Amino acid sequence: MNRPPLPRGTAYAVLAALAALVILVSTAIFLGVGGPEGRSATKVPEPGRPATSAASGAWIGSWSTSPSSAEPNTPNGYAGQSIRNVVHTTIGGTGARIQLSNLYGTQPLALTHVSLALAAGPGTADAAPGSMRRLTFGARPTVTIPAGRSVVSDPVRLVVPQATDLLVTTYSPTPSGPVTHHPHARQTSYLAQGDRVEDLGGAAYPTKTKYWRYVTAVDVWSKDAQGAVAVIGDSITDGVTSTPNTNRRWTDFLAARLRTEPGAPAYGVLNQGISGNRVLLGSSATVPANNPSALDRFERDVLTRTGVRAVVMELGVNDILRLPQQTDPGRITAGLRKLVERAHARGLRVVGATLMPFGGHRGGKPVQEAVRQAVNEQIRSGHVFDDVVDLDAALRDPADPERLLPLYDSGDHLHPSDAGYRAMADALDLDTLKGQASAAL
């Protein structure tokens, strides 16, 4: 049946309403929303489904770090200073957004100016020409992050290459602290007096720093990536003995393999290592606890990261070595199983690492070696993780299996050298990162 045409005014009203709906839906898709620390502030693809499609693309984590503690002696934060963090991507995309955290703050953090840019070169404070973007939050150029919370910026259009340095710069005019930071960045960042957030050159940034402050994640909009792998671990995953400013943590070598090897899953790599981290106990009674246990931080640092498809765990050594020392291997593996169960509830596959040798490390005792061997036996049995990467076998000295191979030893007989970190990445079968979680262990 033929219907009479709508009056011109009515037709325009309908079109306007449809246009508004499209804008609203688009905003809902692209806009990151700030939320409590430990809650997802981004839309994560449904577990068990591809993280992206070539036709549409999706947000995928390209870089992240775990906020590990309150920076000492920062009760007033960095009022009146610009902080230029240098971070290194693993995958690229055509847009970007960042997460900022005030987890360890005790008062609101007011940021009046935040920017994102490509670095002009590795490790520099200079921005690449044409890449500087001022960031907004809910379409506003300023943001106040409550204590204990985090926020995700609005997205910006920016072609972000894989394996490149980004500059994430913040400015706060008012005192706020303590500062949420990650102390073992192995990457030089910079400080400047005054609001120099959108400076293209780095001349105003004379102060070098070894910390990452406030920034905890960078997501990219990708049509090519299939997701991300989150690697949760201790100082070994943190890469504390890797050469600074060279991106030679074992997760960096893993990211390079994923980018270059035929048939490898197209994953970003998210390093969630914290020096001194344990499975069972945190390192402080403060609230929130500095360096919380893996059980306490798993939701925040792994399950809510953007586009995670698989998890790698490198944990347990500090439970054995740090006071109070855990002498029951069954308690350590029970804690690891709890983490695996939580990952399985999200449909995430988990690859777990055996504990590497620490013979010769200060304070090491025969009883601790016995616990390490017992933990490794349970891990190798196949009843803890979906798959195992045997880092113990890959890095130990065949002539003295309780010690690291000298080539792989940084010198402290616990942490690997750059060559050791590469050997760790080479030991991981990339096919184990594919597929679904096991039905039962």
UniProtKB/TrEMBL annotation:
Q: Which residues cross the membrane?
A: 12-33
Q: Does the keyword Transmembrane helix apply?
A: yes
Query: What keywords would UniProt list here?
Result: Membrane, Transmembrane, Transmembrane helix
Amino acid composition bias (Polar residues), ranges on this chain: 67-76
Task: Region Disordered: list its residue ranges.
Answer: 37-80
Pfam families, per database record: Lipase_GDSL_2 (PF13472)
Instruction: Name the domain of life.
Output: Bacteria
Signal sequence bounds? none
Biased composition, class Low complexity, residue ranges: 51-66
Is Transmembrane helix one of the keywords UniProt gives this record? yes
Using the record's annotation, list all stretches that form the SGNH hydrolase-type esterase domain.
231-423
**Name of the protein this chain belongs to:** Lysophospholipase L1-like esterase
**Organism field:** Streptomyces netropsis
Q: What is the lineage of its organism?
A: Bacteria, Bacillati, Actinomycetota, Actinomycetes, Kitasatosporales
